[in-house]
């Protein structure tokens, strides 16, 4: 099973192999490929969210500026025509902030490395199906490798 994710200038591909997970990353810094054994994966996933603090600050400043212009227009009894351009700029930064917010699903390994999946790329259901398949494949691999019953030695 494969999962392909793309966000802005970054492409991620995950492929389930019989005994390991293949991870391929291509971004502005170059290409990276790694193989992670099922033995190293921990059986838990974390959900994290990353926000752009600079965009948040700009949005708050633009909103405050709009509010000050609104108060000035009310106090001086002038028209609200001065609110159009700052309002458009504020809405633009708010939408940009919302679009740049990224949620991740992180699976850690026993040697404290991380496998990072984008949560909503291509959609949340595809990621959940891939992670379910990953845990099933991991369980099958570990059972085949370590779980052996010798029927000739009856205790």
Describe this structure in words.
This protein is of the alpha+beta class. The protein has 2 domains: 93 residues, Pleckstrin-homology domain (PH domain)/Phosphotyrosine-binding domain (PTB) (PH-domain like), CATH 2.30.29.30; 47 residues. Helix content is 41%, strand content 34%. The chain has 3 helices and 7 strands; from the N terminus they run βββββααββα. The strands form 2 sheets. A 4-stranded antiparallel beta sheet has the order 1-2-3-4, covered by helices on one side. Helix 1 runs antiparallel to helix 2. The radius of gyration is 25 Å and the shape is elongated. The two termini are 41 Å apart.
Instruction: Give the end-to-end Cα distance, rounded to a whole number of Å.
Output: 41 Å
CATH topology of the largest domain: PH-domain like
Strand content: 25-35%
Provide the structure class: alpha+beta
Number of domains: 2
Quick overview:
The chain is an alpha+beta fold and 155 residues long.
Characteristic terms for this protein:
155 residues, alpha+beta, PH-domain like, 2 domains, 4-stranded antiparallel sheet, 3-stranded antiparallel sheet, 3 helices, 7 strands, 41% helix
Write the layout of secondary structure elements.
Layout: E1 2-7, E2 10-16, E3 20-27, E4 30-37, E5 41-50, H1 53-76, H2 84-100, E6 102-109, E7 114-118, H3 124-146
Antiparallel strand pairs: 1-2, 2-3, 3-4, 5-6, 6-7
């Amino acid at each position: 099973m494969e999962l392909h994710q793309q966000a802005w200038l970054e492409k991620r591909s995950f492929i389930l192999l019989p005994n390991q997970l293949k991870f391929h990353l291509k971004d502005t810094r170059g290409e990276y490929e790694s193989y992670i054994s099922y033995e190293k994966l921990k059986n838990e996933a974390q959900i994290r969210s990353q926000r752009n603090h600079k965009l948040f600050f700009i949005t708050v400043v633009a909103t405050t500026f709009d509010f000050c212009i609104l108060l000035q227009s009310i106090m001086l009894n002038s028209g609200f025509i001065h609110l159009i351009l700052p309002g458009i700029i504020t809405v633009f930064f708010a939408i940009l902030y919302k679009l740049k917010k990224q949620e991740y699903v992180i699976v850690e390994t026993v040697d404290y490395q991380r496998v990072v999946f984008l949560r909503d790329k291509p959609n949340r259901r595809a990621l959940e199906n891939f992670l379910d398949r990953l845990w099933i494949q991991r369980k099958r691999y570990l059972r085949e490798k370590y779980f052996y019953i010798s029927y000739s030695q009856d205790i």
